[in-house]
Design a protein that fits this description.
This protein is α/β, with parallel strands linked by helices. The protein is built from 13 helices and 13 strands. Helix 1 packs parallel to helix 5 and helix 7 runs parallel beside helix 13.
């Protein structure tokens, strides 16, 4: 489809949505933006987006942005189906809990098949802003979305926006910067409380890994799932930096022959199932690791649990924090 035809299609869809479908979309919550805060301009990888007035109908795309919107007291009119960790409707458990607590109706759930974007469904929701700051949208997709409503993309590279920035960008876009600061402060307070309750974490080296699909992944300290563990007092294991192949900003793959070089005081192992975790902890290739020899392994098992920290969001980090801390404490205790 040519850009002109694409723009014409979206314009027609948007007009149809405004005249015929808007009444069926979920209502948004009232917000408390400061008078005079708009227009706001947000810079991102594809240029800049001007949001002329406080949005009332917010659509989200990608991962974790809907969580940030809901955490700020606003119910999106549309958000993507989340197959990994979501329920039958594609709603993640911490999102479902937040919606139930607020009494808000479930937003329109957008078809999410990976790279394709359901433009017609988004247009039918009649949003006045589309937030996609943690996503993989392309320039062409951004242009098409922007024909529906002002669209905010990721600041730099796809799928790399830090979870804290997802929250702060959402606050700026919605005129709720003070509320975003409060959400971040609340999360930081919970992390600080957990760290204070476990002084034994301080200074111990940490490595995190996932053996899935025949590939052994190691996560770098820039990865959000590692970052919040470092906030608890751990330090990134020197072996992680030494082995890093720079194939991604957030992870690298390691051959099974070199897994024994991943030395750390504590090893965190992710797994969709117990079998995936045992492939690491009981597999011959990793038995020589000091952390495994000592039993200093935190096993983080289960689709929902992994989704909560991969990466964490405004709602999911604290949802899964107690279990992470408990597993880490057991691993540290095993060191004697």
């Amino acid at each position: 489809m040519t850009p002109l035809r694409s723009a014409a299609l979206i314009a027609a869809l948007a007009l149809t949505a405004l005249t015929g479908c808007a009444a069926t979309a979920p209502e948004t919550a009232e917000s408390a933006a400061t008078d005079g805060a708009f227009p706001v301009t947000i810079e991102h990888a594809f240029g800049e987006t001007v949001i002329p007035e406080q949005p009332e109908r917010v659509a989200t795309w990608g991962w974790s942005t809907a969580d940030a919107v809901i955490a700020l007291g606003v119910t999106p009119v549309a958000m993507p189906f989340q197959a990994y960790g979501g329920d039958e409707q594609g709603v993640l458990p911490w999102v479902r809990e937040a919606l139930d607590e607020s009494g808000a109706a479930t937003p329109i759930i957008l078809t999410n098949t990976g790279e394709d974007i359901p433009y017609e469904e988004i247009a039918a929701a009649a949003p006045d802003v589309i937030l996609a700051q943690y996503s993989g949208i392309t320039q062409e997709q951004y242009d098409t979305l922007s024909a529906i409503a002002p669209t905010v993309a990721y600041p730099d590279q796809p799928w790399t926006t830090p979870w804290r920035d997802v929250i702060s960008i959402t606050g700026t876009a919605l005129g709720l910067e003070a509320e975003a600061d409060a959400v971040l402060a609340g999360i930081d307070a919970e992390l600080a409380e957990a760290a204070a309750a476990h002084p034994e974490f301080a200074g111990l080296t940490l490595a995190t890994a996932w053996d899935v699909g025949g590939v052994f992944y190691v996560y770098a300290d820039e990865d959000p799932r590692v970052e919040f563990m470092l906030d608890l007092g751990f330090v990134n294991a020197p072996a992680v930096d030494a082995l890093d192949t720079d194939e991604s900003p957030f992870y690298f793959t390691l051959s099974y022959e070199r897994v024994t070089e991943l030395e750390s005081d504590v090893l965190v192992v992710y797994g969709n199932s117990d079998d995936e975790v045992r492939a690491v902890t009981e597999g011959g290739y990793a038995q020589a690791l000091p952390a495994i020899e000592q039993g200093a392994v935190a096993e983080l098992v289960g689709v929902e649990f992994i989704a909560a920290v991969s990466p964490p969001s405004a709602l999911s980090l604290t949802w899964g924090l107690d279990e992470v801390v408990a597993q880490l404490a057991e691993a540290v205790a095993a060191r004697g």
